[in-house]
Write a structure and sequence with these properties.
By secondary structure, this protein is of the alpha+beta class. Helix content is about 20%, strand content about 40%. The N and C termini lie far apart (about 40 Å).
Length: about 170
């Protein structure tokens, strides 16, 4: 059984979208060599006045309900882990075609990317059998949590649904 400490720092609302099957991709400016990681919730963005402007209209209620993770004193509940199934590259000008696969607005994604090519991470997300209250080391993208976590859990969406989504994502022009 695999145990890991490596985690990806991500907005809690995005982690919950991944963990509840509302999202299957992350859009990044960079690749990753990691094949699996814990999804560690961050909170710094949640205090911005205009935070909801970063999310699609039909997702704003969901985002409000999931802005903050459970925890305190820099210790937060980690409920999910992900495996990177594939990474595809797309010009930033084509990123709008992926809107139905994530909760952010097109403008938010375009502002984040600038002119850089998008690296679209197709993730298989799993809910941990035993969520953990964890602290993390400093790190902008990746960090390590303070104790190893067993990667025991169930996929948040069925194999058939994931295969269908992955095929649809890979065929998006």
């Amino acid at each position: 059984m695999t145990e890991i400490t490596k985690c990806l720092n991500e907005w809690n609302a995005t982690i919950e979208a991944l963990g509840q099957g509302k999202q299957t991709i992350l859009i990044r400016k960079y690749d990753t060599t990691l094949k699996e990681f814990l999804l560690y919730p961050t909170i710094s963005y949640a205090n911005k006045d205009d935070i909801l402007d970063s999310f699609q209209d039909d997702c704003k209620s969901f985002v409000k309900d999931n802005l903050l993770p459970a925890g305190e004193n820099r210790t937060y509940e980690v409920k999910y882990y992900a495996t990177v199934e594939e990474i595809i590259e797309k010009p930033s000008s084509r990123i709008g075609t992926f809107n139905k696969f994530h909760i952010w607005t097109r403008d938010h994604v375009k502002n984040y990317l600038g002119r850089k090519e998008a690296k679209i991470w197709i993730l298989r997300v799993y809910e941990l059998d035993k969520p953990q209250m964890l602290k993390r080391s400093n790190g902008m993208l990746y960090a390590n949590v303070n104790k190893p976590v067993k990667l025991e859990g169930k996929p948040v969406i069925s194999d058939a649904e994931f295969d269908k989504l992955k095929k649809e994502i890979l065929n998006t022009k």
